[in-house]
Amino acid sequence: MKYLCLVYSDEQDLHSLPDSPEDRECAAYAQSLVGSGHLLAGEALQSVNNATTVRVRGGEVHITDGPFAETKEQLAGFYMIDAKDLNEALRIAQGIPPARVGSIEVRPVRQLQVD
């Protein structure tokens, strides 16, 4: 089953706290997930300062610089994994290095039915 592990952290804390992961540690963990057959895709995201939000309301398009909502933690990246069940997905998510300074939201992927 596919799960999306969303990495959230305060951008200023992500690389500045004593327990902050370095990029090479994240890359090594991702490579270990590739080796075990669990990683389907994963990427780090650029700063939330580079985000653009698109909304369509009543047929009218609204484009805003920045993220959708003001929050303490921002979406920093993601890991798309294949796990046998939620317990295995949670075990994998515990190893994602930014979990030490932020949080990892684990969500099952819903398959879209397209006719």
TrEMBL record:
InterPro entries: Dimeric_a/b-barrel, YCII. This is YciI family protein. Belongs to the YciI family. It comes from Gilvimarinus xylanilyticus. It holds the Pfam family YCII. It comes from the Bacteria. Residues 1-111 form the YCII-related domain.
